[in-house]
Structure formats: structure tokens, C-alpha cells
Amino acid sequence: MRVLVISDIHANLAAFEAVLVDAKGEWEKIWFLGDLVGYGPDPNECTELLRELDHIALSGNHDWAVLNRLDMSTFNAEAKYAINWTQETISEETRRYLDALPSVLVEGLFTLAHASPRQPVWEYILDPFTAAINFEFFTTPYCLVGHTHVPVWFEQTADKSVIPYVPQYGRTVTLGESRLIINPGSVGQPRDADPRAAYALLDTETLAWEHRRVTYEISKTQAKMRQHKMPGRLVNRLEYGW
Ligand code: ZN
Asked: What confidence tens digit (pLDDT) does each residue in 218-238 have?
């Protein structure tokens, strides 16, 4: 099965649509790794669009925050503003959809977790040390995560050390013998100094994997955010990718 692997849409419809156009005809199912809402101006629209497509999905920390499932003291002032705005904006249908999402899924050779297999909603896997610990917390060969908004591969070597790789775009590689933790990056709020929406394509039979980036109309999302009086830092960061 050909899979569109996406994460951290964060209510950015223009970015989500650009990914769907770019990957059109190349996948049968979406694996969405969480954070559908929070930060962006289109929580209901993004939820409706995802629900129209054949998909499985996880909940992320922002989805949990919107549902009042976690302590907001860990969020900065701008993120809190966006969460409060999202709580006031989402429909009952969106809320119900978010409420039913699981935190972890296992699909064949792949464990899917929003943040990490150790702490599916919380932990940031930003370095090889944290990745090394997390290899003990899943049993499949591969694990897919989002949450950091930074595309990366962590490969566990035969001696259990971990090597990080920055992905190359537009090049298909085959997942091999080594166990891997892979992050496809963020659709709606990239943080690796590249403002283009990030996603990946996976063939679960051949294990072919490709990271991609696609430009989208950032100004369209920003205009809606300004209209809703969202904090300037949240508006500006989209064009810089941080
Ligand atoms: Zn996120």
C-alpha cells in the first residue's frame, strides 16, 4: 500500500491542500501523526478535509490541549492564545473527531506515535540520545513520529548507537535492516528554517520512502490569522520556517 505520511497540519488548510495536490495519485491511504489543530486558522476545514480522505490518525499535544486534556502551563503565551481561539472556534463535530483519536497505532512494520513511543504525546526526539532511549519502547522495525516539526531519520546501528540523518528531498530510498525512527516534518508549521510544507511517501510493500517539500500560499494562511487577531509571532514564523 502506498501511504502519504503527514504530521502537524496545525489548522493550516493552504499547506494541507498543497501537499494533497503535490502528492495526487501517489497514495492510497494517509497516516496522520497528530496535531491537526492549534496555531492555524482552519481547524474545522482541516478536520473536514482529512475526514473525507481514507486515513488513520493520531492525536497530538495541541489536540489534547484543545480538549482540556493537558496542563497548558507548558505552552507559551502565543500557543495558549491559539488553543483558546481554537476551543472557541471548533464545531462539536470537530471536537468529537479529535476526542476519538488514539495516541499510538501499530501498522505492520511501523509504530506510529505523535511525539515518541515512550511518551506518545509529550516527548521531543530532537537528538540521538533521546532517540536511543526510545528504540527500547517499540518492537516493530520502524517508528514514525512528528511533534518536533523537523524532518529527520535516526538509525540504530548493530552496536545500538544512533546516527541522525537530515533527509534528502525528492529521492527515494529503501528502508533496510536497521531500525529507524523517522519524522516526516510538519505540513502546517515547519521549524527547520524551510517554510515549505513537509511530507513523505511510503510504500509498505517495497519499503520505498521519499521525503518531500512543497511551497504553498503562506500569505493566504497569514491573512486569515491576522483577521482572527492571532499573535504576530505565530503569523510571521510561517514565512521563516521556525
Ligand atoms: Zn505540533
From this structure: 999 999 999 999 999 999 999
Give the Å distance between the CA of 179 and the centre of ligand 1.
Answer: 24
Contacts for 80 with CB less than 8 Å, ≥ 6 apart: 72
Please state the pTM of the whole predicted model. 0.97
pLDDT digits (tens, 9 = 90+) for 104-139: 999 999 999 999 999 999 999 999 999 999 999 999
d(C-alpha 141, C-alpha 110), whole Å:
7
CA 161 to ligand 1 centroid distance, Å: 27
Q: Which residues contact 35 (CB under 8 A, 6 or more apart)?
A: 7, 8, 9, 10, 60, 61, 62, 63, 114, 146, 147, 186
Query: Residue 212 C-alpha to ligand 1 middle, in angstroms?
Result: 18
| Ligand 1 centroid to residue 158 C-alpha, Å | 32
CATH fold of 2-240 reads: Purple Acid Phosphatase; chain A, domain 2 (3.60.21)
Residue 152 alpha carbon to ligand 1 centre in Å:
15
